[in-house]
Amino acid sequence: GRVLAQQQLKAFNGWAEAGDVPRAEECFARAMLHWEHRSTTVLLNTMLKACAKAGDVARSAAWQARMERCGVRMNAKTFGKLIISAARGADLESAETWLEQMSKDSETTAFASSAVIHAAAKAGRPDVAEERMLQMLAAGEPTDVFAYGCLIDAFAQQGQVDGALRWFERMLADGMAPTAMTYNTMMAAYSRAERPREALAWMRRMEAEGLRPNGETYVVAINAFGKCGLVEEASELLAELQARGLELTAKVCSSVAHACLQADRVEEAIAWLGKLRDLGLEVDAVSYTITINACARSGRPLQAMRLLDEVESYGLQADTMTYAAVADAWAKVSRADEAIEVLRRMRRRGVPPNEVMLGTVLNACARAKKPDAAIEVFQDLVAAGIPPNATCFNCIINALARQGRHEDALVWMGKMRAMAIQPDNFSYTGAINACAKAGRATEALGLLEEMRREGVPRTIMSYNCAITACAQSHRIEEAVGCIDGMRDDGIAPELMTFTHAIVACQHRSPPRADLAEDLLRRMAAQGLHPDERVAAVLAHVVGEDAFARLRAELGFEVLPRGRGT
């Protein structure tokens, strides 16, 4: 029986070290059948070790509550593990609460205090971490390299190099020797601040101090250059790593691939994913998703599809974001049918779509001017229980606008309200654009006024669409009134704003030369220059001689067509 108990305890401790909470809990239940009551604290502390390794704050709290109910004594190790679980779970409040309990029930250890600093670092609170360290120093509590490392990391994670450097120097002044991890943390601070060459300088300083860079050191250095898109420098560091005989890991190769993506060298990044496979290294679905996103940004949908094929063929678990990235690649090139097929593909593989995927496919339909396809997708997914958001409705309104279906656009704004989703400035702008396409100035102006009443911020796009609607209906005075409204809203008209209004002046009989001249003067006052098309309209409306006079008086240039500023 004792041998069996020892075997069970060994297995229990193994799962705890691995942070496998469910299996550790199974072992705990079996171990309790063979161990005496006096060992309960040991077993419960081992259970808390599993929670600490996993950063599972909720389970840690549940096991602490069980200890309290059973009257089991909690020692310094108990609280240490509780605080570590809070630190790894970035739960600063729980870490501070458990440290306070520890100070009442047992002696506070330097490790526990350092773990609270670690929790503050994970929670993105370097100010709290620094305050805790100052309290430790003022109270004469022992500090160690771990405590200083956690504090330096708190500043490093926020890219606050001054704070990280200040405590690194304090660490040296207190006679503590930095470790490789300390130097890696300093490098990370400069990396997050996008100062890659200074990050590399810390690596060289580390070598000068007799510390050998490890694989993580190179990952940090490569990432520092990678974030800035400096592929050559990242590649040189990779070659240096190999020359030193360090292991070429998936993390290192992914860092170089990321550098390629930042430099928009997508094909090279894709090649690195292939190289990882050739080396027998594992590539996770996240790396594929990041690369697929880059394909989407650069208009490479076929490459995105090829990468999705690889994800599925290698048995990786593609999630909703992976499929949404591929659909977005098709949306960027206005290919609605292909985006819809990606949606069908993910559903066939049992991956549930969400509002992000719905919005992405609807955007593809809008860009492809396929509102009916968008409505069909919307109705299908909403019926399947996907809650739509404002973006989903806006995509449909935008798709309808591109076909000038203003009545349908207004209906969909009503459907938004019926689902307790308030139309935003994108909703209104889309509907106003639909009215402009249909030449419905009255409705467009009504929506612009409704935005004011509802407190929805009017933008330059909403005004431009309303001005276009007025211009197409030859209602030039109201178009000029919109320009005045822009000024009242603190919005500076752009060239397009004036262009639509000036073009409308020529469609009146007789042409409104007075308004055209006034608009030209406003343009010049803003430092805007007409292009050849607008200049030709102005010359026609005000007359060649008058236009020449205005040009000499106002000192504007006539730029090539489409180049007006």
Word description of this protein:
74% of the residues lie in helices and 0% in strands. The chain is mostly helical and 565 residues long. Helix 1 (2-18) runs parallel beside helix 3, helix 29 packs antiparallel against helix 30 and helix 29 (495-505) packs parallel to helix 31 (532-542). The N and C termini lie far apart (87 Å).
Q: Which features characterize this protein?
A:
74% helix; 565 residues; mainly alpha; elongated
> What share of the residues does DSSP label as strand, in percent?
under 5%
Please tell me how large the radius of gyration is.
Answer: 32 Å
Secondary structure class reads: mainly alpha
Global shape: elongated
Helix content estimate: over 70%
Query: With helices defined by DSSP (H or I, 4 residues minimum), what is the helix count?
Result: 32
Number of strands: 0
Return the average pLDDT rounded to an integer: 89
Low-confidence stretches: none
How would a textbook summarize the main sheet? none
Distance between the termini: 87 Å
Outline the fold blueprint:
Elements: H1 2-18, H2 21-31, H3 40-54, H4 57-70, H5 76-88, H6 92-105, H7 110-122, H8 126-138, H9 145-157, H10 161-173, H11 180-192, H12 196-208, H13 215-227, H14 231-243, H15 250-262, H16 266-278, H17 285-297, H18 301-313, H19 320-332, H20 336-348, H21 355-367, H22 371-383, H23 390-402, H24 406-418, H25 425-437, H26 441-454, H27 460-472, H28 476-488, H29 495-505, H30 513-525, H31 532-542, H32 544-554
